[in-house]
């Protein structure tokens, strides 16, 4: 009897303590130029805070929760290096545009545009990625990349990491999450899962999910880290019209 109550109490406590992580665990080190669209978003102290993705010669995408409450001068992007501590070109921002319907509580429409102060110089290490035009179905193989922590509670990775994941339909994604978090899987979300010990972690927010060579998602939230729950992304195709209208791309 006491053992049964202890297990239930522990489960309820774990559920109550679930936190949404801005969050690659169990990945591989990327090669130079392998993901030329991936950028490191830095604060005024040059600390990596989130990922961002190049979509044009003046524009990047990231998660809105990475930029909310920040002024453009407080952030910059480092492009063209897989080493977070060395190399790359730094770009300041002239403008941050969060999605007008971004909800900080539910993380719906968790997407933001970053306009650089001057034109990005493209080369073999710095290239934009095309935005997906269609909704990716379940059971597709995708790739995620980022400088997030490689285990819960650790520092962000020095070298860019990547791994393959499988997409889930949203209903399965909701069922795999707790009752507390199911409402945060929106129609404009896309989910992935690999296995326990593989997934996104702190510092991966705003980084790319690539499917069939196109930008399908931006890391939004998850239960930290690689704990057996699906990772949740903002589905970029859901916001394609807003992105194109706002940027003129």
Automatic annotation (TrEMBL):
GO molecular function, one term: serine-type endopeptidase activity
One GO BP: proteolysis
Entry keyword annotation includes Hydrolase: yes
Highest taxon, organism lineage: Eukaryota
Keyword terms of this UniProt record: Digestion, Disulfide bond, Hydrolase, Protease, Serine protease
InterPro entries: Peptidase_S1 (IPR050430), Peptidase_S1_PA (IPR009003), Peptidase_S1_PA_chymotrypsin (IPR043504), Peptidase_S1A (IPR001314), Trypsin_dom (IPR001254), TRYPSIN_HIS (IPR018114), TRYPSIN_SER (IPR033116)
Keyword Protease: yes
SMART domains xrefs: Tryp_SPc
Pfam families linked to this entry: Trypsin (PF00089)
Family affiliation: Belongs to the peptidase S1 family. CLIP subfamily.
Xref: PANTHER family: AT26814P-RELATED, POLYSERASE-RELATED
Protein name as catalogued: Uncharacterized protein
Organism of provenance: Aedes aegypti
Gene (name only): 23687895
């Amino acid at each position: 009897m006491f053992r049964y109550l202890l297990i239930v109490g522990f489960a309820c406590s774990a559920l109550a303590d679930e936190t949404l992580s801005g969050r690659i665990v169990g990945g591989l080190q990327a090669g130079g130029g392998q993901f030329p669209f991936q950028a490191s978003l830095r604060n005024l102290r040059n600390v990596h805070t989130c990922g961002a993705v190049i979509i044009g010669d003046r524009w990047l995408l990231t998660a809105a929760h990475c930029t909310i409450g920040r002024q453009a001068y407080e952030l910059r992007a480092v492009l063209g290096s897989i080493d977070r501590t060395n190399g790359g070109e730094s770009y300041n921002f002239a403008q941050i545009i969060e999605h007008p319907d971004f909800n900080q509580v539910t993380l719906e429409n968790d997407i933001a545009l970053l306009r650089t102060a001057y034109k990005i110089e493209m080369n073999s290490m710095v290239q934009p990625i095309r935005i997906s035009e269609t909704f990716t179905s379940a059971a597709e193989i995708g790739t995620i990349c980022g400088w997030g922590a490689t285990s819960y509670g650790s520092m962000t990775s020095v070298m860019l990491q990547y791994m393959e994941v499988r997409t889930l339909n949203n209903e399965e994604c909701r069922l795999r999450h707790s009752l507390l978090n199911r409402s945060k899987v929106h129609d404009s979300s896309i989910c992935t899962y690999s296995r326990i010990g593989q997934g996104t972690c702190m510092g991966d927010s705003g980084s790319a999910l690539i499917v069939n060579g196109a930008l399908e998602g931006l890391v939004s939230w998850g239960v930290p880290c690689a704990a057996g729950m699906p990772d949740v992304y903002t589905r970029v195709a859901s916001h394609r019209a807003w992105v194109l209208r706002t940027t003129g791309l």
